[in-house]
Design brief:
single chain, alpha+beta, 2 domains, seven-stranded mixed β-sheet, two-stranded antiparallel sheet, 12 helices
C-alpha cells in the first residue's frame, strides 16, 4: 500500500487462496441481509450515468465510477446490500476510491513479517503475493472487488460483525477500527448509486419492525462494543427488550429501536445515554413531562457519540445524525439542541432546546411510523 496521502494504512493483505467464483456464487446464494441492516439495495449501476460534475460525500465522477464497479461486483456474486456498502467502505479506507497505479515497492515499506509490499489498486492488494491476481488484475476494479468479496464471505459470521472488523478480517490492517470513520461516506455513496441503479435508498431501506428482534441486534452491538451506553440501567432496558422480559413502563418504542439501528448501521459505532426514564425514575430535564417519560417512556433517546466523536448538537457528526433522522422521520418527530446551532432546518422535524452535549431525538408527539420498509 502506498503512503502518499490516501486514506489507507499499511495492510498485509495476506489470505488463503480464493475459491473459484462459481463456488462463491453457490456459497453466497442463500445469504441475506442482516435482520436489522439498513443498506441501499442497487440494481446494476451504469457508471456512464454519473454526471461529470458529480460530488457525493466529496467523491468525484471517476471515484464514484470505481464505487459502482465495487457495487456491481457484489451484485454479480449475489451478495446482499450490506456487502456492497462494506466493499465501498473498504475501498474508501484503502484508496479514497482512487485506482492507485503505484505502490510501496522500492520505498522500503514491509509487511509485519518483513516481506516487501506491492500494494496497488482500489483495495491496495499485494499482487506480488500471488493470491490477489496479477499486477494488471488488481488494477481492474471489478477483479479487485471480486477478490475482496471472495475473502469476505470466507470470514465466519461476517454479516454480524461491526463493518470495520469484517473489512479488517480481509485486509489485515494494524487497526481494526481504521475503517469505521469511512462508514457514513460509504452509506451515502451506495445510496446514491442505488438511485442510479433503480434500487432503493434513504426511506426505502429495510429494518425489522419487531421490537424484540431489533433489541437483539442492539444487544449484539453492545456485546461487541459498537453500541455503548453511559449507564448500565439503560443498557438493561435493551437487554430486557431483547429477552422479552421488559415490563410496562420499562419498554422501548419500536421507532426508537429502529432509529438506533439505522444510526448504528450508518455510522458503525454510537454511544447513547438516556432511554426510558419512567423505568429508572429519573426526573432530569422536564421530569414526568419529559419525552423520555410520557406515554410509558421509551419514546426518546439521547445520542452522545457517533463514530467515536462526541456530539454537541452542531458539529458535523451531529448534523449527519439529524440528516439521517430527517430522511426517515414522520412529521412531529422532535430533535433537540436548536440553540446550539444556527442556519439549519430539516423537513418533518420539530426542533427544541436541550443541552449542547448530545443530540436528543424523540417520537413522543407523533403516532406515525418511520418512513422505512419493515
Amino acid at each position: 500500500m502506498n503512503q502518499r496521502g490516501f486514506a489507507g494504512v499499511i495492510t498485509a493483505a495476506i489470505a488463503a487462496p480464493a475459491a473459484l467464483i462459481l463456488g462463491l456464487v453457490l456459497a453466497v446464494a442463500s445469504l441475506g441481509s442482516p435482520a436489522n441492516a439498513c443498506a441501499a439495495a442497487t440494481g446494476v449501476v451504469d457508471a456512464t450515468k454519473i454526471p461529470t460534475d458529480a460530488n457525493v460525500a466529496g467523491f468525484s465522477q471517476s471515484q464514484l465510477a470505481n464505487a459502482a464497479a465495487i457495487v456491481n461486483a457484489a451484485s454479480a456474486l449475489g451478495l446482499p446490500p450490506a456487502a456492497q456498502t462494506i466493499g465501498v467502505q473498504a475501498a474508501i479506507g484503502e484508496s479514497s476510491l482512487v485506482n492507485i497505479g503505484y505502490g510501496d515497492e522500492g520505498d522500503g515499506v514491509t509487511n509485519p513479517d518483513g516481506s516487501p509490499t506491492c500494494s496497488l489498486g482500489l483495495f491496495q492488494q499485494q499482487w506480488c503475493l500471488g493470491d490477489w491476481g496479477t499486477k494488471e488484475q488488481v488494477m481492474d476494479p471489478t477483479h479487485a472487488a471480486t477478490a475482496f468479496y471472495q475473502r469476505l464471505v470466507g470470514v465466519a459470521g461476517w454479516e454480524g460483525l461491526e463493518p470495520s472488523f469484517a473489512i479488517n478480517a480481509v485486509q489485515i490492517n494494524a487497526d481494526p477500527y481504521h475503517y469505521t470513520k469511512f462508514r457514513a461516506a460509504a452509506v451515502e455513496v451506495t445510496a446514491y448509486l442505488a438511485e442510479l441503479g433503480g434500487g432503493s435508498a434513504g426511506g426505502g431501506c429495510s429494518v425489522s419492525g419487531d421490537a424484540q428482534q431489533l433489541a437483539q441486534g442492539l444487544q449484539t452491538a453492545m456485546d461487541n462494543g459498537t453500541l455503548t451506553l453511559l449507564e448500565s440501567r439503560y443498557a438493561e432496558q435493551i437487554t430486557n427488550m431483547a429477552n422479552g422480559t421488559a415490563v410496562e413502563g420499562c419498554k422501548l418504542d419500536v421507532r426508537t429501536l429502529q432509529f438506533i439501528t439505522l444510526a448504528l448501521d450508518k455510522f458503525g459505532s454510537i454511544g447513547l445515554s438516556d432511554l426510558n426514564r419512567q423505568c429508572t425514575g429519573s426526573l432530569l430535564g422536564a421530569g414526568e413531562g419529559s419525552s423520555h417519560w410520557v406515554k410509558g417512556g421509551g419514546m426518546g433517546v439521547d445520542f452522545t457519540v457517533v463514530s467515536g466523536t462526541a456530539l454537541d448538537g452542531r458539529n458535523s457528526e451531529s448534523l449527519a445524525l439529524i440528516d439521517l433522522l430527517s430522511s426517515v422521520a414522520p412529521d412531529g418527530t422532535r430533535v433537540g439542541q436548536i440553540q446550539c446551532r444556527s442556519g439549519q432546518a430539516w423537513p418533518h422535524l420539530t426542533e427544541i432546546e436541550d443541552s449542547c452535549n448530545h443530540v436528543h431525538i424523540d417520537f413522543a408527539y407523533t403516532d406515525q411510523p418511520l418512513n422505512i420498509t419493515s
